[in-house]
Amino acid sequence: MPQWLHLDDPNLWLVLAGTVLVGAASALVGVFAFLRRRALVGDAVAHSVLPGIALAFVVGQSRSLAVLLPGAFISGLLALWSIDAIARNSRIKPDAATGLVLSVFFGTGILLMTWIQRSQGAAQAGLDRFLFGQAAGILPTDLYLFAAVAAFLAVCIAIALKEFRLLSFDPEFARAIGMPFRSLEGLLAVLTVLAVVIGVQTVGVVLMAALLITPAAAARFWTDRLGTMLLLAAGIAAMGSMAGSMVSYAVPRQPTGPWIIVALSALALASMAFAPRRGWLAQRIRLAAYRRKIARENVLKAFWHAAEEQRPEVASVPGAGHPTSPVLSEAQLLERRAFVPRSLRRSMRKLARQGLLQAVQAQPDAVSAAGWQATPEGLRAGARLARIHRLWELYLTEKLRIAPDHVHDDAEAIEHLITPELEAELEAVLDHPERDPHGSAIPRPNGTGSRGKDRTEKPINPKAG
Amino acid sequence: MTTAIADPVLEVHDLTVTYRQKPALWDIDFGIPQGVLVGVVGPNGAGKSTLIKAIMDLVPTASGYANCFGQSLDEVRQRVSYVPQRESVDWDFPASALDVVLMGRYGKRGLFRRLSNRDRRVARECLRTVGLEAFADRQIAQLSGGQQQRVFLARALAQEADLYLMDEPFAGVDAATERTTLELLGELRDQGKTIVVVHHDLQTAAEYFDWIVLLNTRLVAYGPKAEVFTPELLQETYGGSLTLLANVSELARKQNLPVRE
Ligand SMILES: Nc1ncnc2c1ncn2[C@@H]1O[C@H](COP(=O)(O)OP(=O)(O)O)[C@@H](O)[C@H]1O
Ligand SMILES: [Mg+2]
ipTM score here? Predict the structure, then answer.
C-alpha cells in the first residue's frame, strides 16, 4: 500500500463515498440526457443552480448544504422550465433558448456571488467552491443526503425504466399510446436537477455537465442494451470519481472535481479506442480484414477472367460444361492486375487453405509452368464476383443513367459488399439480364458459365434498350 | 366529391392545422368505414403526416376534430395504433428489435407495470409475422432500412388495435419488405381492421389500396379508388398549385394573425 494513502483517514473515506455516490447518480440520469441529445440542457441546468445557491445563502445565512441545496434545486428547475417555455411560446429554437437561459442564470449567479463577497466579507468563504467543486469538505451529514438522493434516483429510474426508454427512443409513439408524456418528462427533469444539485458540491457547476454526459458516452461504446448501459455508466462514473478523488487527496492542493473529470475523460477515450465492435481499434481491425477479403476476392476474379478468356465457348454456352481454371504464375497474376506482391502471396496462401486455390507443380514435359489454379469452388466464387460486377454496372447505366465508361470503378468496390439477398434483388430489378453495358456476358448464379455469346461482339448501347 | 359514410371508424371533421400561421391542412372533412385499406396520397408537403399526427393528437389543431369509433381518441387509444415515419427516431438507440416491438405492449400494460411473459410471447409472435424472428436480439442499428420498417410494423401488430394509422411504411423499403407489408395489410383488413396508410407513390397506390384519400393541404377527394382515381382529380392533387390559398396564408403569417379565430 503506498505511503500517501492513509486508509485510516476517515476524511478519505468520506470523500470517496461522496464522490462515488454523486458520480453514479449523475451517470444514471445522464444516460437519458445523452440518449435524448440533451447534453446542453444538462449544462444549462448545472450553471443555473448558482443564483439559487447564492440567494439561499443570503436568506438562510448558512453554508450548510441543507440550506443551499433547496435553493439550487429551485433555481435549476426554474431554468428548465424557462427553456421549455421559451422554446414553446416564441420563435426562439430550443438550442438558442438553452444557451440564453444558461447565460442569464449563470451571469446572475456570478453577480450575486460577487456582491456577497463584497458585502458579507469572510463569512462567504466557501461559496466559490460551487464553481469548481470541493469534495474535501464533505461532512458525514452531507454523505447521508447524497446517499438518499442517489438511492431515490436509482429507484425512480428502475421503476420508470420502461417509460423513460420509450420517451427517449420515440416520444411521439409515447404520446400516441397515451403515456403521460409531460409528467414523465417533468419527472426526468426533476431527477436531473437533483443529480446536478448534489453534483455541484463535488465537481462544481462548470464541470457538472461532464459528470452527467461523459460516463454515458463511454458506456455506449460497450453495450447495445439500455439496462446494461445504465449499470456501466454508473460503474464508469464510480471508477472515475474514485480515481479523481485519490489523486486530489494524494497530491497537495489539487482540486477534486477537475481530476474526476480528467479520469472520466480518460475512461471515455479508452472506451472510444478499445471497445469491441464500436471502438476505433475494432473498426480498424474490421477494415483491415475487409481489405484482405477484397484482395482475395480479386485474385479469384482474376482466375475467372482468365478462364473466361481461355474458353469463351465453354463459358458462354449453357450446359456445355464447366470452364476450368488455367494455371497462372504469380508474374501472370501481377500482369493482370496491380496486386501488391506481398499481399498477393498472403491472399493466395489463405485461399489455398480455404480450398479455393491449389498449387500446381511444373510438368516434366515443360508444357505447363508451375503456378496456381483455382479449384471449381474458387472459380465459382470468382464468377459470382464478375456477375455482381456486371449486374451493378448495368444497374448504374440503366437505372441511374450513368455513362457506361464511368461505372467500372464503382462496381469494383460494390462487388465485394453485395450480399446474396441484394444480388437476387438486383437481378430481379434488372429483369434477369444477360449482358452488362460493355456487352460482356453475365455469369449465371451457379457460377459455372455465362449465357449468350462471348465478349468480342460489339458493345450494346445500354441507353438504346 | 364526398361520400356519406354510416358509422365511420375514423371521422375527421373540419380539421385545420397550421404551423406558425402557415396552413398544413385546411378544412379536412371525411370519414372512413370499417374494414378498408385506405391510402392517403398526395405530393410532398401535402400534409399527409400532419393529418395522421392531428388524428393522433400529436399536433395542435386550429379547428375541427377527429373521432375514432365515434369517440374522442383519449377514450379509445388502446384500439388505435400509430406507426411513425421511420426517420422520426434515432435507430442508433441501445435497443434490440424485440425491445422495440415490446413498446407496442406498453400501452396495454400501463404505467410503471412490468411486462409479462404473455407480452414477450406476443412480441415474438409479431416479429415472426413480419419475418424477423431471427433478428429479435439484433441491435436495431444493424437492421436494414426495410427490416427497421418491419420492426415498426411488428410493434403496431403487438398493440392488437382495430384502427391502424401508418406513415409511409413503403418508403425506401426492399422488395421483401414491400411484399410482407402488403400481405400483412391485406390480412388485417380481412380481419375487419381499418388501415390508413400514408403513401407518396401514385403508381402503386391504385394497386395497393381499396380506398384513396387525395390530399393537398385541402381534401381533393376520397372514396373507393375507382371513383377517386380520375385524371381530373389527380391533376387537382398533383398539378396546379394552391396559389391563392398560399398567398392568403402568407399574408396572415406576415402580419402574425391567426388563420382561424
Ligand atoms: N413541425 C413543423 N413546423 C413547421 N412546419 C411544418 C412542421 N411539420 C411540417 N411542416 C410543414 O407542413 C407542411 C406539411 O408537412 P407534412 O405533413 O410533413 O407533409 P407530407 O407528410 O405530406 O410530406 C409542409 O409544408 C411542412 O414543411
Ligand atoms: Mg410525411
Answer: 0.92
